[in-house]
Design a protein that fits this description.
single chain; two-stranded antiparallel sheet; 9 strands; copper
């Protein structure tokens, strides 16, 4: 533990976040899904990193690419500490978001970011645990549908504990401040 973390612990000073502090929440416990490289994943895989989880779909016209671009900006803002950040995108559209599509989508933002998927039932279970709403909205053709979904990011500290919820539209500066706070907390 770094000196500032020890002093903070001794003084009882609580880390302040720009997002919603949800430290101690009993939901969003894990992401037992498969990444775009075919590897089964769990939050435990990312211990030692601050993890940011976002739910969306690759054909989303605005919210999803904006959120992922902001996460990429945060990684750049962190400089050398950027490799201590893990971006996770969980698809709510496994029908169209194949591993190949997800891999190409992540490459638009940062090659270290991972996209997770699973069966519709697995995704529904994880979304329920994260309190994520999503629903298919029919389009003019069977393949032109959209997905309504909750839009916000869940931020985990380096020990894998859920700490912050950043609402969509908070911006890269707010998310970056929260990620920095968690990195400093860890020392």
């Amino acid at each position: 533990m770094g000196a500032s973390a020890i002093l903070g612990a001794c003084s009882g000073k609580k880390t302040e976040f720009r997002g919603v502090d949800i430290t101690g929440a009993d939901y969003a416990r894990d992401i037992p899904l498969t990444d775009h490289n075919g590897q089964k994943r769990s939050l435990q895989d990312f211990r030692g990193k601050v993890v940011v989880v976002f739910f969306g779909y690759t054909q989303c016209p605005d919210v999803c690419p904006t959120s992922m671009q902001e996460l990429a900006e945060v990684k750049q803002m962190l400089g050398k500490d950027g490799d201590r950040l893990q971006g996770i995108f969980v698809t709510v559209d496994p029908e169209r978001d194949t591993p190949e599509v997800l891999k190409a989508y992540m490459a638009n933002f940062d090659p270290s970011f991972l996209a997770l998927s699973g069966t519709p039932e697995q995704i529904a279970a994880v979304a329920k645990d994260f309190k994520i709403y999503f629903k298919k909205v029919d389009g003019k053709t069977p393949t032109s549908y959209t997905m309504d979904h909750s839009a916000g990011s869940y931020v985990y500290d380096m020990a894998g504990r859920l700490r912050v919820y950043n609402r969509y539209g908070s911006g890269a500066q707010a998310l970056g401040a929260d990620v920095r706070a968690l990195l400093q907390e860890a020392g």
